[in-house]
Amino acid sequence: MKSIHRIPQGRFSISAGSEQTYDDYESEEHIEEGPILDYNDPTWCHSPSLANGEVTCVSPRGRSYRSTLGTRCEMTCDRGYKLQGKSSVHCLANRRWSGTAYCRRVRCHVLHLNPHGRYSCTHGFVVDSRCDFTCDPGYRIIGQHSRTCLADALWSGVEPVCTDDDPPKIKCPLSRIKVADPGVLTAKVSWDPPVAKDTADKTLEVILVGQGPATAFQEGATIVRYKVYDQARNRAACKFIVRVQVRRCEVLKPPLHGYLSCSSDGNNYGAMCEYHCDGGYERKGTVSRVCQFDHRWSGAPAECKQMEFKSDVTTASALLDQFYEKRRLLIVSAPNIADQEYKLQNLMIQKSGCGLDLRHVTVIELLGSPPREHGRIKERPLQSQVIEGLRQAFRISRFYFSMLLLDKRGVDRERFIGTMTSDELFAYIDDFLLSEEERDRLELHKDFCE
């Protein structure tokens, strides 16, 4: 569309910028439809405006004009906004601007919700909004405590994490002291296992290190430990002491010519000690004593006296009763004192007298036949009634050499119809007649006879 104005000297200005000259044309002709180019019109284009931004315009007519034809405007947005569209426009002849623009608010992406944590923001997710991070109780922030939305729609810093660095809490039972049970060096001790707590985890595994409750603890102090880990492997531990006391009596002294055999530890509460005498000696007094709770021994100490027996008794039972549970008896029978087997056996017995005493063996000799029959224990003679009683009770013949071994209860344990060396005799006694305590005692003193 062309706009034609009358101008001096016969020229027209066309909005397209070209000029045409018509001579002798002095009157106003037909004006085609379209804008009339008038640089003097101050509102050729509508007045520019930009919400949340600023418009800076330069007009051919000066700074005071903002919307005349040919005016050029620069578009800028406020902080926190980003320009969308043309950053520069100019006023066209069709009374419109050469482009459009608007300012869109800049937003950062929504922050992730941190496990075991939370955040709060001053202005949501827009520019210059600051979000502060906090963690649940029992957790600690690793990284920055806050982030700010920047003008480029990115958050400052990096996303922090919440870590569980608070160890669980556990409390052990109180330390305790208990007296050992009678006759032993231990005591059964019980307690309730501790309960652990954690600010982050609800379920915790409590681990016992060492001896557990309801078990027998040895004398002295025992340290009991518990430990616990949370899911982040934070560790807590506690400990307490179980102390077992053993009540004791003073150590008993063995009797002269004797010894003691004690149960348990020998002098602890409930221990029992028995008195024993060496060969050729017998116990006088109490058989055993017990250590009591008040640290005292029951009864009175026993003594070992040289064994005495009456050889002038008139019955075999009266003789045997004197040795009951005290001595073993080896009855040697021979037709006469000149019997070769007897002489050989007698010689070996005399040489092994010490070994017989260590094994609590007394020798009874029955020699000959009536009216010259006689019996003796060492050099002490026996009554004829006693000799006859022994032969009848144990069926001992007068006509050949034999030996009969009786235990401490007078029971016939073994018969020998020939001579026995001391080693053979002692081997049988050691294997079949001695108690465990007597074997231990013999082991300690066997070299005494050599």
UniProtKB/TrEMBL annotation:
The gene is Srpx2. It comes from Merluccius polli (Benguela hake). InterPro entries: DUF4174, HYR_dom, SRPX-like, Sushi/SCR/CCP_sf, Sushi_SCR_CCP_dom. GO terms for cellular component: cell surface; cytoplasm; extracellular region; synapse. It comes from the Eukaryota. Transmembrane segments: none annotated. It is found in: Cell surface; Cytoplasm; Secreted; Synapse. Keywords: Angiogenesis, Cell adhesion, Cytoplasm, Disulfide bond, Repeat, Secreted, Signal, Sushi, Synapse. GO terms for biological process: angiogenesis; cell-cell adhesion; positive regulation of cell migration involved in sprouting angiogenesis; positive regulation of synapse assembly. Residues 163-246 form the HYR domain. Residues 55-105, 106-164, 247-306 form the Sushi domain. Disulfide bonds join 135-162, 277-304. GO terms for molecular function: signaling receptor binding. It holds the Pfam family HYR. This is Sushi repeat-containing protein SRPX2.
